[in-house]
Write a structure and sequence with these properties.
The complex is a heterodimer. By secondary structure, chain A is α/β, with parallel strands linked by helices. Helix content of chain A is 36%, strand content 10%. Chain A is built from 15 helices and 8 strands. Chain A has an 8-stranded parallel β-sheet, with helices on both faces. Chain B is globular, with a radius of gyration of 14 Å. In chain B, the strands form 3 sheets. In chain B, strands 1-9-8 form a 3-stranded antiparallel β-sheet, with no helix packed on it. Chain B has a 3-stranded antiparallel β-sheet with strand order 2-3-4, with no helix packed on it. In chain B, strands 5-6-7 form a 3-stranded antiparallel β-sheet, with no helix packed on it. By secondary structure, chain B is an all-beta fold. The mean pLDDT of chain B is 95. The relative contact order of chain B is 0.25. The chains are: A alpha/beta, B mainly beta.
């Protein structure tokens, strides 16, 4: 069991944080099909378009439960039209320049669910196109922006090739998994070619909430649920499945340099899960003798967690104590989830966490995750002005 | 104090036999031509550890493979399945948990335990 260095848990200092920030979950989107179609090969473009009155072949899979408010913060719709997250100037005004954001990691919109497509070849092409779209339309506009790499997890060898295609691009910072095409936890060996490529290229693997339960439900143990309310409460379940799968299958024994970041799955449950995980390992080690350490020790060495949505307890110190019990002050990385409806503001989040954690949560931990030099990022001067 | 717990032939291969020695329940195991002894008390919840299943040590050089070391007997407590190395009593996942072992030797066909203060 990991026992972090002592910290007296008091009511967290309520000082608001206004220093440099790395935002690890920012959803950039496209407004039209045409934006992505431009990046498809000629053959796939032909497959998708010119279908007469039938319109285009749908590029995204959306069969999740509807949010009665919509999924976006109402104020994030660009004035000139288009989807939230699709307009760089709006994002800059509302997110990147409103605080001292030094880096923001882009995590796509509905295109992130491409592993929910039934057609694996189409998913591969969409992933390739979306990654190129992200580089051309976003990374070129602002040096603070970094992008995730989307992959068609239906065909892990092809996904691995897509990861390697971006090996030399330091701004394609992580491999992002969302939907689950096979119904096995992401630790299953069928997925390992992707992890070999991720380890080889030094890019962390990110599992974003919704994995296994958006385009291909259920996301919940015990059975499907019927409202967005229920599914959102239970969103951590899919993340938990993948985390347990990763560790139990020995992914970190097989790929000892691999890093994993869990996005948008919450964090207060981690202590409970790891306590149970360690306890079960003591009695069931025979089934997984390739594990040389306690599950919590693999977690402590390999896993990072984004902050949003931070659980809200009536007493803030209850959540802080749970996080501290697993040393998460050294593993939590700030995420806004902009422009989604339940995004967490920097100032708000900073009042929920002890002031002595702020530098780590807002900058240092993300630097450790992505291999950046925090001293460089913490310099007082803002980055060079972004292109309008 | 030396306690004679029986002749070699009294012990079935690969099975613990529970004896009383030094005021404690002690499990004595014949593992081929070797003998081991340990307290019949699991450090977890004080379960009768020696009544569990005895086997060789399962290990793995890489995910997906299993290797059996027949030279290293292991006991899995019947309560909760915690495994201990029978030779030194240490748990297979944390040396902080340990079943107390008792020195044992064979002389002239007799199995002898050495129990003393605290044994």
């Amino acid at each position: 069991m990991v026992r972090p260095a002592g910290l007296t848990i008091r009511r967290p200092a309520s000082a608001m944080y206004s220093g440099p920030v790395i935002d690890c979950d920012v959803h950039h989107a496209r407004s039209t099909d045409a934006e992505l179609i431009d990046y498809l090969s000629r053959g796939w473009r032909e497959y998708v378009t010119d279908r007469g009155r039938a319109g285009n072949v749908p590029l995204t899979v959306q069969d999740g439960l509807p949010n009665p408010h919509g999924f976006m913060r109402a104020d994030t719709y660009p004035e000139g039209g288009g989807e939230p997250g699709s307009d760089y100037p709006t994002m800059r005004t509302q997110l990147l320049d409103v605080s001292d954001v030094r880096r923001a990691i882009l995590t796509f919109g509905d295109d992130s669910h491409l592993a929910g497509h039934h057609n694996p070849y189409f998913a591969n092409e969409l992933a390739r196109a979306a990654n190129d779209w992200s580089i051309d339309r976003w990374l070129t506009r602002d040096p603070r922006l970094m992008s995730s790499i989307l992959v068609g997890t239906q065909m892990p060898e092809v996904a691995a090739a897509e990861i390697r295609r971006h090996a030399a691009n330091p701004r394609m910072v992580q491999v992002m998994l969302v939907d689950n095409p096979f119904g096995y936890g992401f630790g299953h060996p069928v997925f390992h070619p992707m992890y070999a490529a991720a380890e080889e290229t030094g890019k962390p693997v990110a599992i974003h909430g919704g994995a296994g339960g958006w385009a291909n439900p259920p996301s919940t143990g015990g059975g499907s649920v019927n409202t967005y309310f229920e599914t959102h409460v239970l969103w951590p379940q899919a993340i938990q499945t993948h985390l347990v799968s990763f560790i139990a299958h020995g992914v970190f024994e097989k790929f000892p340099r691999l890093k994993l970041v869990l996005i948008e799955g919450g964090s207060a449950w981690i202590a409970s899960l790891l306590w149970r995980f360690d306890t079960e390992f003591k009695g069931l080690r025979r089934e997984v003798p390739w594990l040389k350490r306690l599950p919590s020790e693999y977690f402590a060495e390999h896993v990072w967690v984004t902050t949003q949505p931070l659980e809200i307890a009536p007493k803030r110190e209850n959540v802080v104590e749970l996080l501290h019990s697993m040393g998460l002050e050294d593993r939590l990385v700030y995420s806004s989830d902009y422009p989604h409806w339940d995004a967490d503001e920097i100032e708000y989040l900073s009042t929920r966490l002890p002031a002595e954690w702020h530098a780590r949560v807002f900058v240092d931990n993300a630097c450790a995750l992505y291999g950046w030099k925090s001293a460089e990022l913490m310099k007082p001067a803002r980055p060079a002005a972004a292109r309008p | 104090m030396t306690v004679d717990v029986g002749g070699i032939a009294d012990f079935e291969d690969r099975r613990f036999r529970i004896v009383s020695a030094g005021g404690h329940e002690v499990g004595v195991l014949r593992w081929r031509d070797r003998f081991f002894a340990m307290h019949n008390r699991c450090p977890h919840q004080k379960g009768p550890v020696c009544l569990g299943i005895v086997s060789g040590h399962l290990s793995s050089p890489a995910p997906g493979s299993m290797e059996l070391d027949e030279g290293r007997p292991v006991i899995a407590c019947p309560w909760h399945g915690w495994e201990f190395d029978i030779e030194d009593g240490g748990s297979l996942w944390d040396d902080g948990y340990r079943v107390k072992v008792v020195p044992v030797r064979v002389e002239a066909g007799r199995v002898l335990l050495e129990v003393g203060k605290g044994a």
